[in-house]
Amino acid sequence: MLDVKVIINRFDATWTVFLHGFGGSSDTWKNQISAFGDRYNLLLINFHIHKETTDRLSIKHVCSEINETMSYYGTGCANIVSLSSGSLVALAFAALYPERVLSMIMAGGMLSFNFRTHLLIAAAITFQNIIPYMSLYKIFAYIIMPRQNHIRSRAIFVREAEKLGHHEFCRWVNLIPALINNRSYIKMINSSSHEINFLYVMGSQDHLFVKAVSKEAKDLKNASVKIIDNCGHVCTIEKADDFNRISLVYLIKHDPKV
User: Which domains does the chain have, with CATH numbers?
Assistant: First the structure.
């Protein structure tokens, strides 16, 4: 079972489950806790729990652990809010466990990689045991979040990644190519009888991903895109108030209890 933070609003409240991005932690949702916690019970999952294991990660295993953790805490059918590469995990989870999902919010979401991003991941896989992982991660962070107004988001993710450790870094770097090979999951979601609503919340300055998501979200049933102006990849930090407002309006609109 995965490491979590649990915040209970009230016994009968709908649950919202948070999935962080690569190198992050449940702490990166600090700006969302108060806004979402006023209405929902919160389950903030931490993927990087520092288990010393030689096992390679698989998508099915990660999604199974999310499902097991949700079952343990009795979340029932919940909203899923994800960030960055966590959106790829969330997409797979929606395909494999659709009955566990009400609606999905994908912050700084990903659907495919452009040439630069593929090159970046290939370099990380190639040099993961040669170059110190924090050097690689800092390069990642700067390429993804290069502008002056991205500095705070970049610093937070670098700080969190320092807790990661080389072994855990390698496990997740090696999983990314499988996560981005997601056409089968999109097909499963589109053919499922369980309706899930997807909202991608993107920053206009998210130069690696916003164009692809804006173009490709139409391939996913019940998906829409909202773009926040003058904002980079991590809109949950950089424009937290805008992200929270957009997301909560969307979730309430699609909440069967309302």
Answer: 3-253 (3.40.50.1820)
